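Form 12-C: Joint structure prediction
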Amino acid sequence: MQTVFEFKEKIEVFSWASAVGKSEHDGPLGRLFDFWDETDRFGKNTWELAESELSHAVLALALKRAGLSHREVAFLFSGDLQNQCVASSAAHVEEEIPFLGIYGACSTCTEGLLLSAVMLNAAEEPLVGAAVTTSHNSAAERQFRTPIEYGGQRSPTAQWTATAGGAFLLRRGEQHPHIVRAMPGIMVDGGIKDASNMGAAMAPAAAASILSYLRLTGTAPADYDAIVTGDLGREGSALLEMLLREKGVFLGDRHRDCGNMMYDPKKSDCHAGGSGCGCSAAVLAGHFLPCLAEGEYRRILFLSTGALMSPASIQQGGSIIGVAPVIELVGGNGNG
Amino acid sequence: MQTVFEFKEKIEVFSWASAVGKSEHDGPLGRLFDFWDETDRFGKNTWELAESELSHAVLALALKRAGLSHREVAFLFSGDLQNQCVASSAAHVEEEIPFLGIYGACSTCTEGLLLSAVMLNAAEEPLVGAAVTTSHNSAAERQFRTPIEYGGQRSPTAQWTATAGGAFLLRRGEQHPHIVRAMPGIMVDGGIKDASNMGAAMAPAAAASILSYLRLTGTAPADYDAIVTGDLGREGSALLEMLLREKGVFLGDRHRDCGNMMYDPKKSDCHAGGSGCGCSAAVLAGHFLPCLAEGEYRRILFLSTGALMSPASIQQGGSIIGVAPVIELVGGNGNG
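Section 2 - Result
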């Protein structure tokens, strides 16, 4: 039974930060991210630890901007793509923040924000919560597919796992961009078994979530300045448009996909666009939250899209399952 | 900042179910579990799909007992130990329940119950939520260590990943055993790097959570009929006792560990005891919830203990990080 959680307490994202690797900094949004590393290593000796450092650093920056310390944060929802989400646990173990690990593949950013809003509503007293999501191209490629040194030919439908991450601090309030409603997503199995075509695997889940959300809230695409998907890429975005058109729903220019926004297809080797759970996290922090804070957007839907699979499930012939939780974000009453 | 969430709405676990494999059914608690499979395969051709089937079947049984269908469930928190938690996503994709994936290693059962209580408190209207946790010995061993066919010698401190799972249905109320308070855990790095000694890696986190919870709630061990840890096993339980004794806290017979309860060390090859996130889930569903429902226990603390690590993090010399969220469960006012 799909349910839209209408929050009694609006939950504002009052501070945020983003970071990316070289390819992402070279992309169209490059100057919007807070920091980047030309080597993608962030000072570490392994790709795995580089991702942990990115995760740690974006949260530290978001806290610094808010004038807060780690000790003032009541909980942290964090997840990534590494096996057993070790990028997140290794990143935040020294910080002594109560930790709740989540795994939603590339839907992790929205899942963490949704659950943060839920936690802050359930708490007796006002608290500060945090949500951090990252991915790293070199860590993900060797884990899910082949090490990048192998130099395998990539399929035209393949997406480029972004080296990217975003951190968000949340509390009750509506001065800053805030979450007013949210909806967990129902998993959809579209029968896709090709780990190099995750856009096609996620598009049916994104379509299902958008249709459910509009129906349950009695809203139409025109009520939103943007309907943002996580990382469908060009393949998945075209499929989403087709699936919605069949139901008489047209998003038009309102549809923005973080995976399409991250790289310039003419200049980079990104094939069908960006992916990785850090992609939508960094684009939310680097682009959409500032747009909401500055009044460029008044109201958006934000649904990171996850492809639930593992190398073992693919080898055993399993389908890639899509999921797309939704949060509705409204611009702040203050100056952001 | 560690915070105890005091729930305005008490959240009752009004239906539950458990299932195990052969070794677990041969153990001291064997007759308490709802079903088991002598082959550990649950009718499937791979260990991975066997775990998914177990996950699906325990939820179906909990729903059947409550006279509910999948469509009446507003959300499902589910997690397991397989890479990218695919056991859970594959298990529940056909059910059309809004899905929120979690990863807390062996702390997943408590994390799912904690987050379910939070969701049900944040919702505007009364809803039914579900939490399901599983693990499978043969799937976990070949993923984390070596395939069981390899027949590697196991260390005396090694624990036996349980083939087990538990499903829980929750809603507002206090007729049945119910969650009154909960606390997310802070991660603790005790410097353990041996994947065959996870009890030692988790014990410091369990000690930290118990000490924090007693301090923040102003309670003492005598206020609880049992303080239940997930799967510290014999090694970890002895360390927990030592760490608490250093702080002047004595649990005595109140301490029960699901990993110690699952197997008979004289009859089985379990070495230091059971582990795996399904272990505490099955023991909660098979033993502790019935004890609370029948009045044998009035009030317990339940903290599944997680060891956050991956094969890659171990190979790269990383520590195994412990985490132990806490829920406080009180017996029902009804007949359970």
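Section 3 - Comments
Chain B has a mean pLDDT of 96. The longest strand of chain B covers residues 5-21.
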